[in-house]
Write a structure and sequence with these properties.
The complex is a heterodimer of chains A (283) and B (166). Chain A is 42% helix and 12% strand. Chain A is an alpha+beta fold and 283 residues long. Chain A has a 3-stranded antiparallel beta sheet with strand order 1-7-5. In chain A, strands 2-6 form a two-stranded antiparallel ribbon. In chain A, strands 3-4 form a two-stranded antiparallel sheet. The longest helix of chain A has 24 residues, at 166-189. Chain A is flat, with a radius of gyration of 22 Å. The N and C termini of chain A lie close together (8 Å). With 166 residues, chain B is of the alpha/beta class. Helix content of chain B is 33%, strand content 17%. In chain B, α1 (13-24) packs parallel to α3 (64-76). The radius of gyration of chain B is 26 Å and the shape is elongated. Classes of the chains: A alpha+beta (283), B alpha/beta (166). At the A-B interface, β1, β5, β7, α7 and β8 of A face α3, β3, α4, β4 and α5 of B. β5 of chain A pairs antiparallel with β7 of chain B.
């Protein structure tokens, strides 16, 4: 299916401070941004994203837009932002440690730790100059098929503002596209019989929401954990033989919970006649 | 809830399924066959003995013959409503083989084959600077009328959290 109604950035619960600080970027991209900022180079560039699979079901475009939204921009005072970010990391670790001590500590002990994380985040946000609004982006939708070397996305803007984001969005696109394309092929092989996504045990748990969503876009009928349904449109959880309609519907994303292990219900009295869905073709 | 029972615990999916179906009746939605690829199910072994050890196709794991035997046994015992979910090492190729043989699987559970695999890497290149073509060797700006222009204002509307708690 094709997700024409894009997932909003908040769906992805991105680690904003880490993305802005370049903590998750290949270090040479983070340094590229620093150099461009230091030398006041603000050329506008067009970044072109592509892949080489013969007919890939692309997933990750909406997450890319979310990454561009929270991550495009710069800190007005980079030196101070870096120092603050170091404090943020240690405060975040202390917060987690305090959390693991529950219920042994009470609010009075927890509050100063939580307050520090919040205050640092707030201070960092106050120093952040967002620039997403100046980006011109055009992109395929999640679920559209890309041919080899065909542009998946064009991002046009001041390179210094988004140079550090490449690692993150290429990762999102590669991972989503892998699961969605695999799923499309498996579902086609099953000739319309329902396929349940059971991949959670084959990946780190952090990957569940993204993989579950990609499998859904690729045509899986159900997922096996609640978190795998977190990003997926509501229709994902109504899996009772709605294959055809699901394809036509425009979907919205909202509710975080999905039912687990819920293959489509066969019609009553159908005995053991197999479901005869047409194999679903992705446009 | 679609009550589905794993039935390979004793490596005898036919008898375990019949037992579960007997116990749960119409409350049982389906059985999930997840036989290890290193084991030969007892139903297959029984059939082998009857045929003096002449094997017919795959023996180990979830095989077409095992699913057929299970379907027959369920139907003959009046459990036609019970679906068969097959999992364990299924990928597109194995599913295609099952479908070509008309194996009566109702639902496939697929894990590893969905999340692994190579050849999906994406690449990004600067292809224009200040509107002029400029790209590393072998790359160039490619026009595409398939790309959809992103409308930030519709994507970044008022914060959802402020108006919804669902």
């Amino acid at each position: 299916m094709i997700v024409t109604e894009r997932l909003r950035p908040h769906v992805f619960r991105l680690p904003i401070e880490k993305i802005r600080a370049g903590y998750k970027s290949d270090i040479y991209f983070a340094r590229t941004k620093l150099v461009l900022e230091r030398d006041k180079r603000h050329e506008r560039v067009t970044m072109q994203v592509f892949q080489k699979h013969p007919d890939a079901v692309v997933v990750g475009t909406d997450q890319t837009l979310a990454i561009l939204h929270v991550g495009t921009g710069h800190y007005r005072d980079r030196t101070r932002a870096d120092a603050l970010f170091d404090r943020y990391l240690s405060a975040e670790r202390r917060l987690y440690m305090a959390w693991t001590l529950l219920p042994a500590i009470d609010w009075s002990a927890y509050e100063p730790v939580a307050r520090e994380v919040f205050e640092i985040s707030r201070e960092l946000a106050a120093m952040w100059e967002p620039a997403w609004a100046e980006l011109g982006v055009s992109s395929l939708y999640d679920g559209e098929v890309a041919k080899p070397h065909e542009p998946v996305m064009h991002i046009e803007g001041d390179y210094a503002e988004f140079a550090h984001l490449e690692t993150l969005y290429l990762g999102a696109l590669s991972e989503g596209t892998r699961v969605a394309t695999n799923t499309r092929d498996v579902v086609a092989a099953a000739r319309g019989k329902p396929v349940i996504m059971f991949g959670a045990r084959h990946q780190g748990h952090e990957a569940q929401a993204g993989s579950g969503y990609a499998a859904y876009v690729g045509g899986a009928s159900a997922v096996s954990t609640d978190e795998q349904g977190e990003w997926s449109p509501r229709a994902h959880r109504r899996v009772r033989g709605r294959h055809d309609r699901r394809d036509a519907e425009v979907r919205r994303v909202h509710q975080p919970r999905a039912r687990r292990d819920r293959p489509p219900h066969r019609e009553r009295n159908s005995g053991r006649t197999r479901e005869r869905h047409e194999p679903r073709r992705l446009q | 809830m679609n009550v589905t029972s794993l039935v390979d615990f004793n490596n005898d999916v036919v008898n375990t399924s019949l037992g579960v179906a007997h116990a749960l009746g119409t409350r049982l939605w389906g059985v999930r066959v997840d036989t290890s690829e290193s084991l030969v199910d007892r139903a297959i072994l029984r059939e082998l003995e009857e045929k003096d050890g002449v094997a017919n196709g795959d023996l180990r794991g979830v095989t077409p013959r095992l699913i057929e035997l299970l379907r027959e046994a369920l139907d003959q015992s009046g459990y036609k409503h019970v679906r068969i979910v097959a999992s364990g090492g299924f990928d597109a190729e194995k599913i295609r083989r099952f479908e070509e043989l008309g194996v009566p699987v109702d639902v496939y559970g697929v894990g590893s084959a969905l999340v692994h695999g190579a050849g999906f890497d994406h690449t990004a290149d600067i292809v224009r600077v200040e509107g002029r073509p400029l790209a590393k060797t072998g790359r160039r700006y490619i026009e595409s009328d398939r790309l959809h222009s992103v409308d930030w204002s519709s994507l970044i509307a008022e914060p959802d959290w402020a108006r919804s708690s669902s």
